[in-house]
């Protein structure tokens, strides 16, 4: 019985046609790419066909016409062509070589082709010819700017594309050029200069920085390219090269601290998704103009294939996507074909990083063993001994001497004690510390390696790029790892002068035989080691995890009531995962005329994920034998988005100073998600055989299908005046299948304006550039499919027949989509010839029609009703400071700093309520609500009989979100060496450290190893907690936990208590304040030391470029939160320890 065999279709065809659709679409795209690249190669070979019908034409004009058709350049002596006489020729679809043979051979001329240049010479010597050719002379000199010399400046000879050089580290150059020729000097960020030689052998050239650095082009919504100076909203760009230096397996982690307002909480556990938010909300990932489905992560993306990442921050920036990208978008542009001088470039990149210690790891005491109240003796681990099933590490003190034993230490029966053959009882073993750090003894040293090989090329009409990547990450938990392989194809084809085709396809395969769990659960190693395993246990002794004689049936562990052997979990309880990800798009661009262009694009994103979960015999689940016979389950999830856009764009300049770009377009989007799950019930009949046919009871299966269709029409207009003022208007109307008419149609308009003030008025010389911008948007949020209609759920089975049940929530049929009324204002200023830049943004979003749940009487059959109600506000500021503080002949220092601040407040509650959940109208909504201690007016904790007392209701304890966030990146260069490093952090915000609370409860916290514990074992009450005790009166609190009246009287707390009683009262009752911390942290995120091999040393090698770098990742962490990394975790998370990583990169170009 195979429940996933396509031939049976036991769950109906609904689950399978998404897969069929995917296969068909993939085949179509693959066929397109095959034809696409075949056409490109055909164009490369056939692109030089010539058609001529000329009579009595000068040879020079004939060659010009041939050059126009074939895009080649001719070099010749004018006298040679003038003496050749007129030409009459009639050819059709002839090759370039055939035409040149006919033209030149009869005239005693020959030709030589070098790349795209053809040199024409005579076949007979002519003495007088030399005098007409300009003689070359050697020209030397130095290139500087206003600060000092410039290295790496390109120096070219005009009309000689193969002749050129670059300035050295001292800014010097030397090359041969015609005595009356022209030299071209090019350098990024500076204006290109043409300098006449005029028979000079020495030239000193001063380059001037570009008046506007804003002329660079950025990618905006729908993949539309715009000049940055004309962009009317906040964007920030990250170059792809910066993502592959100090790598992470998920490239989202490489964006941390690089973009103001983009918050990424990194995770230390293998294969755990980082939390990505833009201005406090989830955002959409767009690849080559095509939005990916909700929930798309970045594991399938390879940094080597990314050209750049542009973050569109506001609702106006992504308005053309409608509600799909209401909260902005992360625009990823992949690399396309780029060839070198010969038209082809082969590149290889390799990176390896090793674990080099921990930034945060739980530390435990090593002085006391398992048990409770100082007593312990193991019999069966199930309660047959003394506290051997209790599950705590409050047992006898370790390493105590006893002269009456053979070992010289106190001896107690333990889980690995041998059995006395005479009595059948366990033989006591020394009660000693066997491992002071079992967690480190269990964990492996992780590593990350990546390899990428790419081939890129350019022909006359086509370009292409093929890339193959492999990522391998070894986890800290033994047996956990991740393999990710990616094939990336991309290219374009110029079909003719009007039509251009472009396509990209990425296929990624992820596989892990097992990945760890970061939750508080019995299959987490920190749960079983750091919280509940005593130091008298040596983790190495548990490595052979089956009980002798019970292999495959019963694990060997230290407690058979609560805790699993960590090696048993690593080897037997596995979570395998596979994911096949296809991201592809193809587009056609047709130039109707010079003003009117048409584009159509289709894209597909498809994730087909599968999990394979195995639970072995004897697995222990929270003190119960929930799966004594094991279990097995399979899950298949398919998530697909197919989207098509068509766009007609008109561009025109009128009245000399006005430019308009206007577009109208339409789109169609299909979102489809299917799920199929099957699992055994009652356990496995045969141990270790993980197959659905091995189920003890009937297999339980389920399937789901979600579909959503959205059609839209949209348009935009950019109107600019003298390139100083730009007005941008957009509008989009969508029709969604997730809402009922008439609420299924909604309009999404935006208007934005930018002013280049520095070109309107004369500013002080120190001010190089000033731009002001503002935007208004009325954004609409779509809803999930089937979330607005009340429908039946599958209930319990009765006599084998499934039942139907209503959900607890009633959905109103007239539900409207949420709306966001957004404002954004900003300014960009550059100083000192663009050496210093400042970008400031303020935004304000009012969110209305928010969906809320209103309680209902259960007599209605429901307990809540979902309606439109609340109104909230989200506002903040973002600041980006960039500059070049130091720049000399050999040395430069560049810095970029990001700052952001976000606040969420309540503007209105449904029904006019003033407070809900402890948050009043007008207050911040990110309140941390928890349990806190009762305190006296002077702040001391109130006790009763020596035990701290808590407020018997949740109170407002602070705010979860940080006060502000920042990132600072520095890069230094000295000749061929480079050094870069970056810091980032979040300042403020509150969190509860549930890990620390559990360490206290279990008796493993280092602070519990003290003399008070010994006194408690002896029945003594010797612990004084300090504070005060209440002697009279009472206190009342409002809903937020603020005191409304207080008549209490106090006296010092002088009551001593049993230390164990105090620990349990403090840390086991869920009192948040007991482990409440400021979440502030600062990380040294990455450090890179690089060296680029000079080209002069590679002349006799096959390499065009070679680079090597040493890298470090997560090198330092400053935080007051113990044992846990506040960057990605809080509460009761049991994540893998955050590691420090070091490694190296190697880059080669051929």
TrEMBL record:
Membrane topology term: Multi-pass membrane protein
Xref: InterPro entries: Beta-barrel_TonB_sf, CarboxyPept-like_regulatory, Plug_dom, Plug_dom_sf, TonB-dep_OMP_SusC/RagA, TonB-dep_rcpt-like
GO CC aspect terms: cell outer membrane
Domain TonB-dependent receptor plug: 228-329
Location in the cell: Cell outer membrane
Keywords: Cell outer membrane, Membrane, Transmembrane, Transmembrane beta strand, Transport
Protein origin, superkingdom: Bacteria
Chief localization: membrane
Entries under Pfam families matching the protein: CarbopepD_reg_2, Plug
Family membership noted in the UniProt record: Belongs to the TonB-dependent receptor family.
Protein name: TonB-linked outer membrane protein, SusC/RagA family
Organism in which the protein naturally occurs: Pedobacter caeni
